[in-house]
Each structure stands twice: as C-alpha cells, then as structure tokens.
Design goal:
The protein is an alpha+beta fold. It has six helices and twelve strands. Strands 1, 2, 3, 4, 5, 6, 7, 8, 9, 10, 11 and 12 form a twelve-stranded antiparallel beta sheet that branches.
Length: 267
C-alpha cells in the first residue's frame, strides 16, 4: 500500500514498514520568504536575490538597473527583483545592499504595492545567495578559505511545518512566527520556506584552475532528492550562526517507498 508523502501521520501508521531510510543530513532552513525580513538581516552579505510579488508581469519599468529592480504597471502592479552583486577590479562592491538602498527598496514597495491596514507591503523571495565567513566551518570542511557562498531556494512547506505555523493548538506553535505568516498570507503569500541547497567555498580570481568545493549539496524537497550532502556539524553552524534566529530551523527527512519524503525532525 502506498502512502501520500503529505500524510503527517504516515510515520505512525501500520504501513510504517515502508520506511526505507531516516536521513541524518539536516537541512538548514529559513521559515519565511519575506523580502523585508531578509533584506534587513543579511544586507551587504547578499550576493544574489530573486523576488517577485503582485499581479502577473506586464511591460516592466526599470526602477533601479544596477540592482535589477522593475515595476510592472497594472491596476495592481508587481515588483520583481533579480539582483546580482557586482564588484570592481579591486573587489569592492559596486551595488551593495546597504541601509540606504534597503530604505529605497522599502519605498518602492510602499509606493507601488497596496497596504493592508497598518501592514507594510511585502513580496516573497524565491532565491537567496549570501556570503558567510566561518573559521569553524573551514576547519571542519578542510578548506583553504573561511569564506563561503550559501544558496537557499524557495520551496513549499511540508505539511508538518505548515501545522506548526497555522495551528495554534499545535504543541510546536510559535505565536511570533504565526503572526508573521498571518500578515504575509494577507498579501497572497503561499506557505513556503527557504531551504539550503548549496554551500560552496569562495574561489578568488587569482586562484585560476581550482574548482570550488561544494560542502553542502541538495536539489531540494520538491525534487525529492533523497541523497543530501549536508554534514551535521556544518549544518548546525549555519543554522545557529548564519540564519535569522526567529525563523531558523534544521530539518531532517524520512524516505518512504520510492523517493517519497516526509518531514521527520525540526529543531
């Protein structure tokens, strides 16, 4: 008998014998996709950022070319961001996401998107790449550098995670996160989170010919990747030192028949 991987009680059912494997490779995750939250936390550490919210795209109007910000006019327009960090020949950021630009971005959201009551408009992030610096990760991974690029992508939340956020009777319900998501849902957000899919060591331009090492590699929950490479010690460092703590989680999965996966532990 096959089980729906979205069945949150599957692990406790009589069919539990179909469990193939408990994955001991925890995935660092951010359980929000709020642009405002992530801009305010990561700022100049952001290397790549993709986000969009509002109506379906029409003819875009460029608002801020160096940062890839566009306004798509309609009765209710949308904002799209396709940001990539740029550096000059000396390695200095040419288009940093600093406090001044974050304030400008908040202004774009306030100007072009509707406000609901006293809730400022927001849009969901689809991809986030950030730079992290960590000596212990370098020591653990055996790399020559302590600078890494961390990549997270937006994926649908697992049913057990949704229950933690939406059901105030759930023993793991967090009122702060629940209220945060209630406001986002008012803006049409889907329940999604940012899962880590890659941690790569930074390779300098002068280091020609050397291939960057991938310390964490996973194609994601949605793609049912049942073979994540995510060392526990490194994943813990990322979760506790490089994610916004109000929304930081470590997730593990159980593999059922085939490549079906359900969420196992959250910490």
């Amino acid at each position: 008998m096959s089980l729906d991987p979205d069945d949150i009680d599957a692990i406790f059912s009589p069919e539990a014998s179909i469990i193939k494997e408990i994955l001991n490779n925890p995935i660092p995750s951010i359980i929000t996709v709020s642009l405002r939250t992530l801009l305010d936390f990561y700022k100049t550490k952001i290397l790549r950022l993709e986000a969009e919210g509002g109506e379906s795209p029409s003819r875009p109007e460029c608002l801020d070319e160096p940062y890839g910000v566009y306004y798509i006019p309609r009765q209710v327009g949308s904002i799209r961001i396709n940001y990539a960090e740029k550096r000059d020949v000396e390695g200095n950021q040419e288009n940093p996401i600093d406090d001044e630009w974050i304030e400008k971005m908040h202004g774009y959201l306030d100007q072009y998107l509707p406000r609901i009551g006293d809730i400022p408009p927001d849009i969901p992030v689809q991809r986030l790449d950030v730079e992290i610096v960590n000596d212990r990760i370098a020591e653990f991974a055996g790399t020559d550098t302590n600078i890494f690029e961390l990549k997270l992508i937006s994926e649908p939340m697992e049913p057990r995670m949704k229950a933690r956020i939406q059901n105030s009777n759930n023993e793991n319900y967090d009122p702060f996160v629940g209220d945060h998501w209630r406001k986002l849902i008012d803006f049409g957000f889907q329940l999604r989170n940012l899962n880590t899919v890659e941690l790569v060591e930074r390779i300098e331009k002068f280091d020609v010919g050397r291939k960057a090492r991938r310390i964490i590699k996973w194609t994601g929950y949605k793609r049912r990747d049942i073979s994540p490479k995510s060392p526990i010690g490194i994943a813990q460092r990322i979760r506790f030192e490089h994610l916004p703590q109000e929304f930081a989680k470590l997730k593990t999965y159980i593999v059922l028949e085939g490549t079906r996966m359900i969420l196992d532990g959250v910490s």
